[in-house]
Structures are given as C-alpha cells and as structure tokens.
Amino acid sequence: MLLQLFVFIVAYWAYSQCKDVGTDKNIRYQRKRYITLVMVLFTIQSGFRNVAIGSDTFQYFSHFTDDVSYSWSEMWQNFLQNLVKDPGYMLLEKVFSTIMPNFRLYLIFVAAFFFWTLGRFLIRYSVPNTMVLLAVPLYQAIFYGFFSITGIRQTIATGFLLLAVPFAIEKKPLKFILFVLLAATQHKSALLFSFFYPLCFLKNSKPLLMISIAGMIPMYFLGPSFAQGLIADTIFDQYSSYLNQYEKVGAYSFIIFMVLVGVLTLVKINKIYCMLPHSNVFINAFAVGLLLTPLVMIDPSNMRVVQYFSIFGLIVFPLLCFTLANNGNRVLTFRIIYMFISFYVLLRGDSYAFFWQEYPLGGNYDAAGRLVDDFILGIL
Q: How many other C-beta atoms lie within 10 A of the C-beta of residue 17?
C-alpha cells in the first residue's frame, strides 16, 4: 500500500510540474516528460516485485529456469513443431537468457517493454496531461493486477498490440498484421485483436456501443458456450479453460467500471467525438471489451480475453471525464476523481513486496523465492 501511495503522490506532484502551457512544442515536451516519469514508476513497481507477488510470477520464474536449460536445437524444434504452448515465449526467454541469464532482470525487461509501449500510446493519443493524470489511478485500480504483477506472456503480447494500433488507424494493414503476429508468438489469444482493424472504419460508435450494452446479459448466459464452440479444434482450443471456470464470482470493480463508463459514454458520445481525433476508434474498441465483460463475471481469469480491448478505457475514461465536468470547476472535478480512485486502490490494500524483502510463498519460498533475491543482491 505504501508503494501505491508513493506512486499517487509523485504522479500528482509531477503533473503540477508539467503544465500544458506555452507553445505546442513545449506542451508536447511536457506531456512526454510527464508520461515518461509515470511509466518509469510503473516499471519499477512491476519489475522490482518479489517473485511471491502475483498469482503466477513464481510459476514464470520456475519456467524460466527450466526453459533456459534447453539447447538451441531443442528450442527451434519446439518452436517449429509447436510442441509447447506459445513457443515464441520460450524462444524469447532463451534469447534473453543468452545475454543475461537472470529472472529478475528479465522481469525488469518485460516491465520496461510494456510500459514503453503504453507510454508511446499515451503520448500519441492523450491530450492534455490531465488525461494521463486520470489514467494513473485508473491503471492501478483496474489493470495493475494483470499487467504489472501477472500474465507475463499476455503483457508482452499486449505491448506488441499497442505498437500495432497506429498502423490500424493509419490503414497500414501489413504492418498491423506483422505486430499482431509477433504478439501471437507470445500468446495466441492476441490474434483476437485482429478485429481491431475493421473497428477503425466504423465512424459512428453509437450503434456498436448500444449493442454491447444490450448484449451483456445474453453474453453472460450464452457467451461461454458460443466461444467454446467457436474455438473448438482451433489453435485457441488450449485456452478453452479460460471460458469454462465457475469458481469465483467475478471482478466486480472492473465490471462496474466498464458498465458505468459504457453507459455514460453513450450519453456524451457526441461531445467526446469533438475532443480527440480517432476517439471513435477507441470507443469502438472499448465497446468490444464491454460486450466481453460478462465473461469476467463468470470467472476473473477471463480477463485474459477481455483485456486486449478494455485497456482502451485509459483513453475513453479521461475523455468522458472532460465532458462531464464544466469548464469552471473542471480542475476541482479532476482532483476529486483522482483522489477517489486513489483512495479506492489504497483501501483495497493490494499486497506488495520488493525483491529484497521477505514475503511468504508457502513452503517453496526459502527454496526458490529467496534464491532469486540473494542472487540479485550478489551481482549488485
């Protein structure tokens, strides 16, 4: 919790130092400066975490130590014959470990790559800095639990997909497809992002948004069965377990956020169109994420399917806040929203520990978790 508080305080202080004033050149410089600082904070938060933080970080650590032991010939055989799930990820581990055979540095590399791509995305499509200010606590509230501390393969895949977004908007299909395929080598579910390209041709987002809102209830009951039949006997079949789990009640904060933003965006959609170029594209992508949100109600792990489109909420939500606030009290409104979401994250009390701190990992911690920390401290 203390780290989250530090991130919120520094992010707000940096915003006060990076004003959107002066020439267009200075405004662009201040936005890039602010976003870079925020992404560095997020990179440290993710890359410096203890291996016990996150539902599968330790599992990725175990895979890393096993996968790097493969010879190059075995690695290429696995990649070409697809003997393992998402063989491109194993190949990435092998390439990285050849240069630096250390899981801690690998975690930092993954975090740096993802937040570099997210930063590029925000620099390109977030104007002014206030949009980024509101995106900071929103990321920590909605996306921190996935991109920052778990799902490493899909985090890398999402990074490639964020790089693909401008090519879709600029109608450059070959470059878009190239980055989608790169993402798919890390996690085949990234191929679902191919649907983003036709969304760029849909100028009026209102019908899609209305369909998504109306279709949420049918999707809750019929979505898993429909998706199960759609992916049967395809390359996605190995991920069918994501759509077939009924053990938990769902990520309610995420669901409330998606529904609330979806409904209010529909009400304010004409004003949002006027605020940012390509806003219709981001609303379209968010609408797809909204339609898929009932899968998260069945089981939170289905976020793996939704997150490729829900991440556009980092653009849509700040745009919506601009339309809801009057010019006279806009600054106060943004401060209240920032404080409200920040307090929600702090009250939620997400557990966290840096790699040099002891944090329990059941019976395996002394045997594995501490080994990583001691090795890193030794080379530093």
A: 10
Which position has the token pair 């010879």?
Answer: 71
- Phi first, then psi: what are they for 363, rounded to 5°? -80, -10
Question: Could you tell me the pTM of the whole model?
Answer: 0.88
State the pLDDT at residue 268: 93
As a whole-number percent, the residues of the chain with pLDDT over 70 amount to: 83
Enter the DSSP assignment of 349: T
Determine which helix (DSSP H) or strand (DSSP E) holds 328, and give its type and residue range: none
Angle between helices 129-138 and 2-17 (to 10 degrees): 180
- Banded model confidence at residue 380, pLDDT cuts 50, 70, 90: very low
Backbone CA torsion sign across 141, 142, 144, 145: positive
Res 370 pLDDT > 60: no
- In a 13 Å sphere around the CA of 243, the CA atoms on its Cβ side amount to 23
Per the structure, the complete domain to which residue 312 belongs is given by 2-48+102-349
| Structure tokens, 10 | 């520094």
- Of 104, 103, 132, the C-alpha closest to 41 is 132
Q: What is the C-alpha separation between 290 and 215, in angstroms, rounded?
A: 9
Inter-residue contact 50 to 357 (CB < 8 Å): yes
Closest by CA position to 318, among listed 140, 121, 131, 133: 131
How many domains does the structure of the chain reveal? 1
Answer yes or no: is pLDDT of 75 > 80.
no
Q: Is residue 71 part of a domain?
A: no
Alpha-carbon distance of 338 to 136, in angstroms, equals 8
**Terminal-residue alpha carbon distance, the chain:** 26
Q: Which residue has the tokens 């602010």?
A: 34
Among residues 154, 136, 122, 181, the alpha carbon closest in space to that of 42 is found at 136
3-state secondary structure of 304: helix
Position 237 pLDDT exceeds 60 = no
Answer with the residue of higher pLDDT: 212 or 217. Answer: 212
Does 377 reside within a domain? Answer: no
Task: Name the phi and psi angles at 354, rounded to 5.
Answer: -75, 165
265-282 average pLDDT score: 92
Axis-axis angle for helices 103-125, 129-138 (nearest 10): 140
The token pair that represents 185 in the structure block: 């080598």
Residue 58, domain member (yes or no): no
Question: 160 pLDDT exceeds 70?
Answer: yes
> Is residue 138 domain-resident?
yes
